[in-house]
Design a protein that fits this description.
The protein is mainly alpha-helical. The protein has 11 helices and 2 strands.
Length: about 280
């Protein structure tokens, strides 16, 4: 077996092992889903820090810890998740500034503080939103919808780009992405939600499928490109190696980190599921 086929087998096997575990923990809800999302948030923050700083400073470990705590805030009261997240973020901002004021190096301190806060937010905001969504009425249906928007987009974009792709989408950031792939992914997001509505969660309305499908089909690829931009800026191929054959957590959920807040905002302000 050549190296390419070996890597493909590893990707498939690791995916088949991880996917059921993820879905089971999410379906259990409560502390199980919050724990899953908290661990993922902490790892995402660590991957960002390692990409941008190469090492994990004591302040970075604090950022990872707090990123992992944020998804648990929804357990207390999902309607006040944003309030709790604000105070945790405010604390970490002040902590990061104070840490580098004392420890230095002073010429690099503002940049390092910015990376500390950005890594914390990048790793935690989307997954905290998903944790709050899970606790809404019919929460698993909406979490599953966020996953479908992301995964269906990624799958459809891959095949559309491979067989129809001619025009590059943003070659400076991601040379392999095409406009044809983007269009295919958009169709995949909308179609995936309609399939979800037909076979799994009829509580989804036609409007839900169209609005979330189109918005997620646009926002998800932006999240993907943003992570590609980060890796290209620092000359990194993968965000990590924690998932065999797939790379890091950020490599797998970069689009979901943008789509999860979309679902939360839609449910809160359009559907009115939170007061």
């Amino acid at each position: 077996m050549n190296e390419k086929n070996k890597n493909l087998v590893i990707r498939i096997v690791s995916g088949l092992i991880l996917l059921p575990v993820v879905l089971i923990l999410l379906s259990l809800g409560g502390a199980y889903s919050a724990g899953l999302l908290g661990v993922a948030a902490a790892i995402c923050a660590s991957e960002y820090y390692l990409i941008t700083q190469k090492t994990l400073s004591p302040a970075a470990w604090v950022g990872m810890l707090l990123a992992g705590v944020l998804p648990f805030l929804a357990l207390r009261d999902p309607t006040r998740t944003g309030e709790g997240a604000f105070w945790v973020t405010a604390f970490f901002l002040l902590f990061a500034f104070t840490y580098h004021l004392i420890r230095g190096p002073l010429p690099e301190a503002p940049t390092r503080v910015a990376h500390l806060v950005t890594g914390f937010l990048y790793g935690s905001v989307g997954l905290t939103a998903l944790s709050a969504v899970r606790l809404m009425p019919d929460g698993m249906a909406w979490v599953f919808s966020a996953l479908v928007i992301t995964w269906a987009n990624d799958t459809a974009a891959y095949f559309a780009g491979r067989f129809l792709g001619r025009h590059k989408l943003y070659p400076a950031v991601s040379p392999n992405k095409t406009w044809e792939g983007f269009a295919g992914g958009l169709v995949g997001s909308v179609g995936g939600l309609f399939i979800t509505r037909a076979f799994f969660y009829p509580i989804l309305t036609v409007t839900d499928c169209l609005v979330l499908g189109v918005a997620g089909g646009i926002l998800g690829p932006i999240g993907d490109l943003c992570e590609s931009m980060l890796k290209r800026a620092y000359g990194v191929k993968d965000s990590g190696r924690i998932i065999p054959g797939h790379g890091g957590i950020l490599d797998r959920i970069d689009a979901l980190l943008f789509n999860a807040p979309l679902v939360f905002v839609y449910l809160t302000f359009i559907r009115g599921l939170l007061p």
